[in-house]
Design brief:
Layout lengths: L6 E6 L8 E5 L6 E5 L4 H15 L9 E10 L28 H12 L10 E11 L3 E8 L1
Length: 147
């Protein structure tokens, strides 16, 4: 039976993206291997998995899932004042973060981190919503529930 109550938790850290991959031949075995070009991806997915495991009180779901992600990206220094206003957010500093990485690539990385903890396979996510905003504490707020 799927958990139909939403569960929300925060994963701290700078969100990684599951972006481009590159293939190369393994030096020892000669087999082709595919690797992500994002060096922080494995650590990010491990953090997502660890935090999700602390909050998801069930076995991985087998049914359809809903997932919402609010990605909090670090603000650039240009959003803050200088001199006596150093550390103060400028009044015209934007809320939305139309910058790299792409939201869909961050979602893919997050879903892979949730796989095996919240759901068996990320193909089970049939309803999703994501946002990218600037914040003082980078990370992602995740809400998941069975449908």
């Amino acid at each position: 039976m799927a958990n139909t109550e939403p569960i929300t938790f925060f994963v701290p850290g700078i969100p990684a993206s599951k972006g481009s991959t590159k293939s190369m031949r393994h030096a020892a075995t000669g087999k082709m291997i595919t690797m992500s070009t994002c060096k922080t991806l494995p650590a990010w997915q491990a953090t997502v998995r660890l935090i999700a495991d602390r909050h998801w009180p069930h076995n991985p779901s087998r049914g359809p899932m809903s997932a919402t992600a609010e990605f909090w990206l670090p603000r650039p220094k240009s959003h803050y004042g200088t001199g006596r206003n150093a550390g103060k957010l400028k009044p015209n500093a934007p809320t939305w973060a139309p910058v790299t990485p792409d939201g869909d690539k961050m979602e893919r990385a997050m879903w892979d981190g949730l796989t095996g903890v919240v759901f068996e396979n990320d193909r089970q996510v049939v309803r999703w919503h994501g946002t990218k905003v600037y914040g003082d504490r980078p990370g992602v707020t995740i809400t998941v529930m069975g449908l």
